[in-house]
Design a protein that fits this description.
It holds the Pfam family Abhydrolase_1. The protein has about 325 residues and is an alpha/beta fold. Helix content is about 40%, strand content about 15%. β1 (about 5-10) and β2 form a beta hairpin. α7 (about 170-175) crosses α9.
Length: about 325
C-alpha cells in the first residue's frame, strides 16, 4: 500500500489540506476540536488497505488549511460546502462520511442538506440533535450548565485565546486530550483551560510525539479558526430555521464511549438509546464502546476501525 499523500485542494473558495491514501469508494474523515487530519492516523491505512479511497482533511481553520478570521465563515453551510467541494474535486458523486465532534456536526448536516451525495455516515461522539424552535443552543447551555461551560467561554472573541496563551501549546494539547471528566464545567470565575489538569503521565493510547504533531500545527495557525466554530453557533441556529423538524434518512451508525464528556451528565446516553434519536435519524445503529472517552478513534482504534468497516461493507454500492 502506498504512503499517505498530502496536497492542498481548492474547495468552496478556500484551500484545504488533505491526507489521502488508497483507491476505491471515497471515504472522508472529518476531525473535531482540537485535532487535525492526524487524529485519523489509525483509520487511514486500515481503510485504505480494505479497498477505500480515504481522504482526511484539515477542517477549515485547522492545520495547513486556510483559516478565515470571522466566525461567520464557519457556519454549517461553509462546512458542508467544503465537504461537497472535496467530493467534486475527486469527481465523486457520492461518498461515505466519518466524523467526530465538530466533524460529526458537519457530517450530520451534509446528510441533512445533501443526502443525494452521502452513501452512509458514521458519527462519533456527537449525536444529531434537532434545532429548538424557541431557544438558541448557547442560551440553553448557559441556562442548563452555566458560564463554566467551555462552549459559553469560547463565545467571546479573544477570551479563550488569551487564556490558552498562558500555557505552551503542548500543555494545551495534554489538557484537552486527557479529559476524563463527564461533567466538563469550570468553577465560577475560572477559565476552562485553567480548570483542566495537566497530567503527570499520558494514557497509553497517545504519546508525547503524537501530541507534539497537534501542538506544532496550532503554534503555526493559532486557535481562532477552531474557536470560530463555537462562535458561529448562534448564527447556525438562525440559518437552520428552514430545516426545523427535518429528519435524516441517510444510513448512519453512531459510536460513542460510555465515558465521553456529558454521556451521563448531559443525558446523551438516555437520548441516543431512546426512541427520540431514532425518530430524527430513521436509519440508525448505535454502538456504545465500554471505557471509551471523547477521542474514541484514537483511544480505541481497533474497535472503531471494525465498526466503521462493517458499516461500509453493509452499505456498499454496486
Amino acid at each position: 500500500m502506498n504512503e499517505v499523500n498530502h496536497q492542498r485542494i481548492k474547495s468552496n473558495g478556500i484551500w484545504i489540506h488533505v491526507a489521502e491514501q488508497g483507491t476505491g469508494p471515497l471515504v472522508i474523515l472529518l476531525h473535531g476540536f482540537p485535532e487535525n487530519w492526524y487524529s485519523w492516523r489509525h483509520q487511514i491505512n486500515f481503510l485504505a488497505n480494505h479497498g477505500y479511497h480515504v481522504v482526511a482533511p484539515d477542517m477549515r481553520g485547522y492545520g495547513d488549511s486556510d483559516s478565515p478570521l470571522t466566525p461567520s465563515s464557519y457556519t454549517t453551510f461553509h462546512l458542508a460546502g467544503d465537504i461537497i467541494g472535496l467530493m467534486d474535486h475527486f469527481h465523486q458523486e457520492k461518498a461515505y462520511l466519518v466524523g467526530i465532534d465538530w466533524g460529526a456536526y458537519a457530517g450530520w448536516h451534509v446528510s441533512l442538506f445533501r443526502p443525494d451525495r452521502v452513501m452512509g455516515f458514521v458519527a462519533l461522539s456527537i449525536p444529531y440533535r434537532p434545532r429548538s424552535s424557541t431557544i438558541k443552543d448557547t442560551e440553553l447551555l448557559r441556562k442548563s450548565i452555566g458560564d463554566g461551560c467551555h462552549i459559553i467561554q469560547f463565545q467571546e472573541p479573544g477570551r479563550a485565546e488569551r487564556a490558552f496563551a498562558r500555557y505552551d501549546y503542548l500543555t494545551v494539547m495534554k489538557k484537552f486530550f486527557t479529559i476524563t471528566e463527564d461533567d466538563f464545567v469550570a468553577p465560577p470565575d475560572t477559565e476552562i483551560i485553567d480548570y483542566l489538569r495537566t497530567p503527570w503521565s499520558l494514557p497509553p493510547w497517545i504519546t508525547e510525539e503524537d501530541l507534539q504533531v497537534f501542538a506544532e500545527k496550532f503554534e503555526e495557525s493559532g486557535f481562532t479558526g477552531p474557536l470560530n466554530y463555537y462562535r458561529a453557533m448562534d448564527l447556525n441556529w438562525e440559518l437552520l430555521a428552514p430545516w426545523q423538524g427535518s429528519i435524516i434518512r441517510v444510513p448512519t451508525k453512531f459510536i460513542a464511549g460510555d465515558k465521553d464528556i456529558g454521556f451521563e451528565s448531559y443525558r446523551t446516553k438516555e437520548y441516543v438509546l431512546g426512541e427520540a434519536f431514532k425518530s430524527y435519524v430513521l436509519d440508525i445503529e448505535v454502538v456504545i464502546i465500554e471505557d471509551g472517552h471523547h477521542f474514541i478513534q484514537q483511544e480505541k482504534p481497533q474497535q472503531v476501525n471494525n465498526e466503521i468497516l462493517s458499516f461500509l461493507q453493509k452499505h456498499s454500492v454496486g
